[in-house]
Write a structure and sequence with these properties.
It is built from 17 helices and eight strands. By secondary structure, the chain is of the alpha/beta class. It folds into three domains: about 140 residues, 3-Layer(aba) Sandwich (Rossmann fold); about 70 residues, Orthogonal Bundle (Helicase, Ruva Protein, domain 3); about 120 residues, Zinc Finger, Delta Prime, domain 3. The protein has a six-stranded parallel beta sheet, sandwiched between helices. A two-stranded parallel sheet has the order 7-8. Helix 4 links the parallel strand 4 and strand 5. Helix 1 packs parallel to helix 2, helix 12 runs antiparallel to helix 17 and helix 16 runs antiparallel to helix 17. The chain is globular.
Length: about 375
C-alpha cells in the first residue's frame, strides 16, 4: 500500500504494519516519517533496534535475514532498519528482500529507507515485495506554490501565525522565497522564530529580521519558473544558481532542452498532430506538460526561431566563445536568454492576459 507522507500519522494510528518503506529525496520529510515510525514502534513495545546499511554490491544479506529470525535477548519485539542509500540492492539483495518479506515473524517491525526511486525501481520485484508486506511512504518535494501553506501550517504547530489577509500572504511569500528548495533550513528558521518570539501573531518586520536567505535552487526548476512566466522568481533562481557555483553549461543545457522541445511540439502540431500526442512524442510529462499547453498558444513561430538562435549563441558563450552584440560573461548571456524567453510569457498578478511593460534586456558588454 502506497501513501503520501502526510497520510502516515493517520495510518500509524490505525495500527502498525510489518514493513514500512520510506522513499524520497527530501531529507526533512524522510527524517520526520522515519521518526514517526520509530516512535510508534517504541510505543508498541519494539524496544530493541538493529540498523543495517547496504553499502556496495558485496553487502552480506545473511545478517539481515538472520536478525529477523533471531530471538531478542533484551526485548519481546524488534525494530530492524534497512538503509539502502543507492536505492539499488542488486540481484542478491533483491532476492534477499523478497525472501525477507516472506518469512517475517510477528514480533519484528521493519523500516526500509531509500532515496527517490524511478519508475523501473518502483515496478521491481523487491519493491513490490516490500510494498505488499506493509506500507510504502512516498516522500514528495514541497513545490514553491505549496510552500507558503506549508510554512503557515508549521507556524501553527508552534502557536504562531502571520497577519490575516494580503499582508500575511506577503509575509509567507517572503519567507518562502528565503527558504525555497531547502526544507531542512526552513525547519531551522521556523524553530528560530519560535525561540525569538512568543506565541501569537508575527509581523512582516519580525519575519524579515529573523529569517536568513537559505534558499537552494534546482537548475531543473528554472525552466518551470520561466514557462510559468514568473519573472522575479526566474531571475532570483538564476542569480542563486550562479552564487551556488552551478556550471553555466548545465543551466544552458536545461534551457536549450526546453526550447528544442517547444520547437518539436510546435512543428508536430503544425503538421496536424493532436497536442497531447505531440507532447508525448516529445517526452514532455507532468508539470512541464501543463506549462507547454499554456505557453505554446502565446508563442509565434518567429519567437521560437529567435530562441533557438539565442540558445545556439549561448552554447558558444558557456564554452568560452565570444559573439558580437552579446556579453562575454556566460552568466550575463544566460540572463539575456532568460529575459528573452520571459518576454512573451510573463504573468501580471490578477491579470494573466494583460500586456506587461517590456522587460529590459541586458545591454551588450
Amino acid at each position: 500500500m502506497q501513501i503520501r507522507a502526510d497520510q502516515l500519522p493517520a495510518q500509524l494510528e490505525r495500527g502498525l504494519k510489518a514493513v514500512y518503506t520510506v522513499h524520497g529525496d527530501e531529507p526533512l520529510q524522510a527524517q520526520e516519517a522515519a521518526d514517526a515510525i520509530r516512535a510508534a514502534a517504541r510505543a508498541a513495545g519494539h524496544a530493541e533496534r538493529k540498523v543495517f546499511t547496504v553499502s556496495g554490491a558485496h553487502f552480506d544479506w545473511s545478517g539481515v535475514l538472520g536478525a529477523a529470525q533471531a530471538m531478542s535477548l533484551f526485548a519481546d519485539r524488534q525494530l530492524i532498519e534497512i538503509r539502502i542509500p543507492s536505492g539499488k540492492p542488486g540481484k542478491e539483495g533483491s532476492e534477499a528482500l523478497q525472501r525477507y518479506c516472506q518469512t517475517l515473524p510477528d514480533d519484528v517491525l521493519t523500516l526500509v529507507q531509500l532515496p527517490r526511486l524511478d519508475g523501473q525501481q518502483v515496478k521491481s520485484a523487491w519493491f513490490g515485495a516490500l510494498d505488499a508486506a506493509g506500507v510504502s511512504v512516498r516522500i514528495e518535494p514541497i513545490e514553491r506554490k505549496a510552500l507558503p501553506a506549508w510554512l503557515a501550517q508549521r507556524l501553527a504547530r508552534q502557536g504562531q501565525r502571520v497577519q490575516g489577509g494580503e499582508a500575511g500572504q506577503h509575509t509567507l511569500a517572503f519567507f518562502a522565497d528565503r527558504v525555497e528548495g531547502n526544507l531542512l533550513a526552513a525547519h531551522q528558521e521556523l524553530q528560530k522564530l519560535g525561540l525569538l518570539y512568543p506565541a501569537g501573531e508575527l509581523s512582516f518586520e519580525q519575519v524579515e529580521a529573523a529569517v536568513l536567505n537559505v534558499a537552494r535552487y534546482d537548475v531543473f526548476k528554472l525552466g518551470e519558473a520561466i514557462l510559468g512566466g514568473q519573472v522575479a522568481r526566474a531571475l532570483r533562481m538564476l542569480d542563486g544558481l550562479r552564487a551556488e557555483g552551478e556550471a553555466p553549461v548545465l543551466v544552458h543545457w536545461t534551457l536549450a532542452d526546453d526550447i528544442r522541445a517547444l520547437h518539436r511540439v510546435r512543428q508536430a502540431v503544425d503538421a496536424g498532430r493532436p497536442l497531447p500526442l505531440a507532447l508525448r512524442e516529445a517526452r514532455v510529462w507532468g508539470l512541464k506538460e501543463k506549462l507547454f499547453e499554456r505557453v505554446l498558444p502565446l508563442l509565434a513561430d518567429h519567437q521560437l526561431a529567435h530562441w533557438l538562435e539565442a540558445a545556439s549563441i549561448c552554447d558558444g558563450l558557456v564554452k568560452g566563445l565570444r559573439h558580437p552584440g552579446w556579453p562575454a560573461d556566460p552568466w550575463e548571456g544566460l540572463r539575456r536568454l532568460v529575459l528573452m524567453m520571459l518576454e512573451p510569457l510573463r504573468v501580471m498578478p490578477g491579470a494573466a492576459r494583460r500586456v506587461a511593460p517590456r522587460l529590459a534586456l541586458q545591454p551588450a558588454a
